[in-house]
Amino acid sequence: MYNFLQRLSGVTSFAMSTLMALVVVIALTTPFIPSSPTFDMSLHNVQTTTGRAMDPYDRMSRKAEYARLTFDLDADLSTMFNWNTKLLFAYVTVDYTTPGFETNRAVIWDRIIKNKRQAKLKLRKHHNKYALRNYPLTFEDVEGANLTLHINPVPYLGIMYDKPVVSIPFTIPRPVKPAAGSA
Amino acid sequence: MDFVTNAKKFGVRSLLLQGLTFLSVLTSAFMIWKGLSLFTNSESPVVVVLSGSMEPAYYRGDILFLNNGYSPIEVGEVVVYKLKDKPIPIVHRVLKVHTQRETGEQFLLTKGDNNNADDRGLYNPGQLWIQRDEIIGRVKGFVPYAGMGTIWMNDYPQLKLGLLGTLCVLSLFSND
């Protein structure tokens, strides 16, 4: 009545449809799994200098101002690991506004956290990993700077979502040496 | 030989019907793809990861679902971009965003999680930022390994021809 191929096709098509249904259910439920991470971040100081970082692709980078932040970060993200968490991408951003640019946001530090053992972050007087500079050469008229920690959970399968967590306001000073004009 | 006897047995009409079914399968697949493209505002709403520059988040052969809504791009989002004059789309994370106040134009810098430096070395010569129109979409959903078939077909083009041939032959000889 049924030959081998028909049986095989029936079994595989049923397996595929259940697998698809399972994928959809897992993808939709994962963002609602509760977690209770703890965070604490503090900023020690911000220094602005010129001619520190060099970008080989940007000819103007030698003349630009660079901000160097010193910050502490304490976080316990281990509760954010559930059965559908492949890794957590933790990153710290600086954002500010200028007259010419409505939003400016840059990642200054990031870390890939692969398991619960790595999920307890304890950084003391840490500096930014990526050079921070403004789109123009200087940090002139920069307002409302914020330092924010974000967590981006990457699932084994499913929907991407982002969790901004702690945010602290600060100001970016101009270089101490009077380079051009008064600051 | 087999084909000719089959054609004699079922007649031209049924052969044409087979052809029509085959075409309708093809067109409906194309319609779903284009519909999805319209819905997500992205020229290719589903992409396969081709390189290891986003490991350990995304590996070669993983499938990404994209959305290219009008809202501005945020730092930390994983985006797929295609540079002008370069054929291959790249999946990387956004490192810097500057949004101009008057025009709303965005200047973006990206970096792969597994790369040491940002993407300025990958951009076109003299290009320091990528812009909104170079972005195909932001990654919204993710299914691992599902695109391995595409990778194999890319690596071994004979596989693609063989698969297509088998499908054509099967569709001609199936009788439902």
TrEMBL record, chain A:
This is Signal peptidase complex subunit. It comes from Coemansia aciculifera.
TrEMBL record, chain B:
One of its GO terms (cellular component) is signal peptidase complex. Gene3D superfamilies: Umud Fragment, subunit A. It is a single-pass type II membrane protein. Residues 40-139 form the Peptidase S24/S26A/S26B/S26C domain. Keywords: Endoplasmic reticulum, Hydrolase, Membrane, Protease, Signal-anchor, Transmembrane, Transmembrane helix. Its EC number is 3.4.21.89. It is found in: Endoplasmic reticulum membrane. One of its GO terms (molecular function) is serine-type endopeptidase activity. One of its GO terms (biological process) is signal peptide processing. It catalyses: Cleavage of hydrophobic, N-terminal signal or leader sequences from secreted and periplasmic proteins. Its main location: endoplasmic reticulum. Component of the signal peptidase complex (SPC) composed of a catalytic subunit SEC11 and three accessory subunits SPC1, SPC2 and SPC3. The complex induces a local thinning of the ER membrane which is used to measure the length of the signal peptide (SP) h-region of protein substrates. This ensures the selectivity of the complex towards h-regions shorter than 18-20 amino acids. SPC associates with the translocon complex. Catalytic component of the signal peptidase complex (SPC) which catalyzes the cleavage of N-terminal signal sequences from nascent proteins as they are translocated into the lumen of the endoplasmic reticulum. Specifically cleaves N-terminal signal peptides that contain a hydrophobic alpha-helix (h-region) shorter than 18-20 amino acids. Belongs to the peptidase S26B family. NCBIfam families: sigpep_I_arch (TIGR02228). This is Signal peptidase complex catalytic subunit SEC11. The gene is SEC11.
